[in-house]
Amino acid sequence: MSQIINFIFDFNGTLFDDTNINYLVWKYSFEKRGIYLTKESYLKEHIGKSSKQTIIDIMKTNNTKIISDILNDKNKFLKTILKKGVSLQKGAEQLLNYLKNNSNKYHYIIASMASTNTMKLYFKYLHLERWFNMDQIILYDNSCLPKPNPELFIKAMNKLNASTQNTVIFEDSLTGLKAAYATHVNLIIAINYQSKLIELQSLGIYHSFKDFSSKNLQILLFGTEKY
């Protein structure tokens, strides 16, 4: 395997373990409208989707005002939770610091299905400006096809001028991992993956870690412990 120098991170569930937070904000937003969303249903059917698609699938409508109202409710509740204090996935800050301190060698980017408004909240409360520029990350915002289409990741690779041989993609959802697989990059790593491992193996993905702190993950990426 070629040396990995380009790092592409999904955000929700990957860099930021917000699975429970996202479920709560969606549950709150839909219950206001008389719809009860179970956690099992959320995990099975909606992880990795865009917010707009989640609303369309659950509300069975494409009405612009309804979608906008639900998104506003979701972000208001999300802001309330983020204000209480949150942190990135275990080991993520250490990895990002290492990449930043060696930016002459490594390049990294976020490629997320999150909307611009939602990502601005994450930047504010997680202080993502320590590593990323809001204008330089890749967000969905209807500007490309949603995962499992690989377009979001391909845009990120183009932004980094990356090749499939020297790039790693980190993802947490099966939908996102399918998108990563479709890019044909040499290395795909599942982080915080909560479904059956056999689903990963069917895609030829054999690297799965709970978070970014693993010694074995560091050895896989760099050949030795680095952070």
Automatic annotation (TrEMBL):
UniProt keyword Magnesium present: yes
Taxonomic placement: Eukaryota, Amoebozoa, Evosea, Archamoebae, Mastigamoebida
Gene Ontology MF annotations: hydrolase activity; metal ion binding
InterPro entries named in the record: Beta-PGM-like, HAD-like_sf, HAD_2, HAD_sf, PGP-like_dom2
Coiled-coil residue windows: none
PANTHER family with a match to the protein in the record: 6-PHOSPHOGLUCONATE PHOSPHATASE, HEXITOL PHOSPHATASE B
CC cofactor: Mg(2+)
Naturally occurring in which organism (per UniProt): Entamoeba histolytica (strain ATCC 30459 / HM-1:IMSS / ABRM)
Taxonomy, superkingdom: Eukaryota
The protein's name: Haloacid dehalogenase-like hydrolase domain-containing protein
Keywords of the record: Carbohydrate metabolism, Hydrolase, Magnesium, Metal-binding
